[in-house]
Amino acid sequence: MAEFLHNISLQDILLGVIAILFGIPLLVFGIMTFLYKAGLIAPPVRKPESPVSVTSENNTMTNNVFKQFWMQAILFILLSLMLLFGLRGFSQAKTAPKGMVLIPEGTFIMGSSDEEILWAAETFLSESLEYYRDETPAHPVNLDAFFIDKTEVTVGDFKDFMAETGQEPPRYFDSENFKAVTQPVVGVTWQQAASFCKWAGKRLPTEAEWEKAARGTDARMYPWGKKPEEKRGNFRGKKDGFRYVAPVGSFPENKSPYGVLDLAGNVWEWTDSWYGPHPGNTTENDFYGKKFKVMKGGSWFSNLDLARITVRGKALPTQKMNYIGFRCAQSLSEKAAAKN
């Protein structure tokens, strides 16, 4: 219920109000017309200004009333049908596909401020602020609504993809530690991840989309809030009960404001974005350019510093590591096209 209410926008409310405002008059006109036709009520009779047959005038007025009511009723029917189809289409567009979560349109704060990277450096005992500079500056980003997978793509999901397309298995696919069907698939290159998403009628999320899905609109450090908490996810070490990857959804408290799971820890996640500077970042960085793809979220091999939402991991698109996986996203327009 909370997620449903969260996804109701002002546009939803306005459309509902408009539908009611059109529906009530339509109902009234329909009832009035039925009553007139049934002879249960009579049209108003005014005193004639000249000697005219009352019966003739009443008949004329009755016909005029019927014509007026029917014309208005037809108009309201047409308008109501247009609204109903519009609402139906809008409702379908806003309903998340199975296994996905709707991220509403709007603005959020992407990246870290100088104060936030100073906090991270002090909290995690980093020797240099330069390590964090690529996260800056914090800046507003406006995004259209989109869908994102609630959990990472699993080994089982990827097996279905391989069976249908003949895709080669990724690295570590038969490894004892990474082959459970409920674990996130790892060892995939960026292209393998992108190919899977395309096969599923989706795509890889951009860095901004991923960050908004994890962060919401309150500029939090982690999907669950501002405090680093090891118990919330699968990070380096065995305290969480997992030596390597955990089955997706193993940590219900590792949840973003929108209900997306596992965005911190377990596996780094490929995005569609090249590694480059944020707008307004003038720091020199030899790694910027169309060479590395951005990864987000940290992994089972990461500490809580790397699991912060604004951290920008990077990897060559051809890399195959046992700590890199992915999830898919979908635009509302892409969902509509897929249904057609």
TrEMBL record:
The keyword Membrane applies. Keywords: Membrane, Transmembrane, Transmembrane helix. This is Formylglycine-generating enzyme family protein. PANTHER family: FORMYLGLYCINE-GENERATING ENZYME (PTHR23150:SF19), SULFATASE MODIFYING FACTOR 1, 2 (PTHR23150). InterPro entries: CTDL_fold, Sulfatase_Mod_Factor_Kinase, SUMF_dom, SUMF_sf. One of its GO terms (molecular function) is formylglycine-generating oxidase activity. Residues 98-329 form the Sulfatase-modifying factor enzyme-like domain. Pfam families: FGE-sulfatase (PF03781). The chain crosses the membrane at residues 12-36, 69-90. It comes from Candidatus Nitronauta litoralis.
